[in-house]
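User: Show me a protein chain along with its predicted structure.
Assistant: Here is one chain, sequence first, then structure tokens.
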Amino acid sequence: MSAYRARKPPYFCSMVRWIVHLLRAALSIGSPLKPDTKRMMKESIKLRSAHAQRNMAGACMAVAMCGFLLACGGAPAPLAQNNPQQVAALAQNAPPMRRMEIDKTAYPTSPPRQANARVVALLLPLGDARETIRSLAGHLFNGAQLALFDAPTENLVISLHDTKGTAEDAREAAKAAIAAGADIIVGPLFGSSVSAIQPVLAGRNVPSFAFSNDASTAQDGLWLMGFLPEQNIDRIVSESIAQGLTRFGALVPQGVFGERIAASFAASVDRFGGTIVQSEAYPPDAEGMFDPVRRLARFDDRKAAHKAEMQRLANEALALLPTRIDDETGLPIAPPEEIEAVFKLLGDDAPELVSAYEALALVETLGDIPYDAVFMPEGGLALRNLAPLLPYFDIDPRRVKFIGTGLWDDPTLRQEPPLHGGWYASAPSANWGGFATRYEEVYEAAPPRLASMAYDAVALAARLASFQTEAPFRAELLMDPNGFSGIDGIFRLKPGGLNERGLTVQEVTRAQSREISRPPKSFVEHDRRLEAAMSLAEALRRSNPDRALPTLPNGAEDASGQETLPEAGGS
């Protein structure tokens, strides 16, 4: 086991805590800082190096955010009426960051701690073979460290344990963390590592917050902090049905990721009273996407219907075309070979027929699309390759709503006209901007979306430790039904190890995403919305008792237990 020190000298941390103490004292009596206090702070700040100055700026900003992970109500602390704060969608590759400095000799056994200090053990793949995963692990550590620095308590320390990106090393890291006296574990990152530590935690009173979103790895005492795709899908499906879009088509990727998503989507549509009309799975290569979209669009049938209707109109035009006589021979003149010329000759004799032909000539297909919305769960390059194919095969985004998941929370997708007007579910954005700014000021790197998840996990532990001196991480405290509010919006931990979050629904536009359904401000509001959605579902079932059952691509029934982080992957 090794421990990381914050990249600040010990006297710096003490000085910052002293300054925070002075600020709190001033705030507690409701008066501004005295001139002497300001002078002392100014002189103290002069002692910092240039690098420490940047970190101090972020730290002083943290004073205003000190209690930011506030319980939404009930025990263990009073309700805090703050706005929901945004979170990211699913995992993204971490941006580059500076090399982290590790003092391996600092804590040869365990971090120094006060008599009543609690230890948060971080299990992260710092030694993973993949550079992107190592970088992501570093960002998660930074987010956790930032939460500790902002915490309104000094009786909490962090110990860091390297899972090296393998299930076996994750198991050994968990053993080392428990042996070193961990009170709570934050991590590991991926589903296979979470499964590996389950036997280690069995029978021990050491709760864990894992970053995975694989629901099959959750269990009592081991909660998933990851954004569960099932909840993301529930949010966009329930909102779509509430807006009158009850018939769905789906385009999902082939493989276990797509199978799990397809199964979740089918269950969600059925739960909220909708119908899946058609679902197609596509391969990862752009060329292979053509045929599944063509099938979903029923392009060949609609093309044939278009051809048949064009022929019918042509036959009707020929029948209405007056017979013309050649002046020289006195014989009938044959009708023009080109059908356009036939309609031109009709002129004002059959204006409705001519208009119908001209309108049909502008399109390639005939017939209504049998669904109101098309679900496409992927983001990134896959979505950019897929989306233009829908209008190419005559699925008009002005008539059929395109919907997706939090993977659509990507500014580059604004450059894709077919996606304009599309909807997706994601975490609220109210607090992400402030967190990202602070993070960049302290670490001189942009945070990935998962960094806020690490912040929230450690901030929750810090809050409970500050209010509960005895057994602060008891299950009844962690599973407060009122939940908590953090960088990533409101969330609560459920029995069995799953989480529940308050999500927003956004619309893709040319300029920026536009919120069309705000996130719930509390779980009281969240639960009321769910009750309304279930009532609507029951009404839809009564009005359409013969609705078709959801259909799944082949293999979707066996897709449980699959991680849905295709870009990150790993153990």
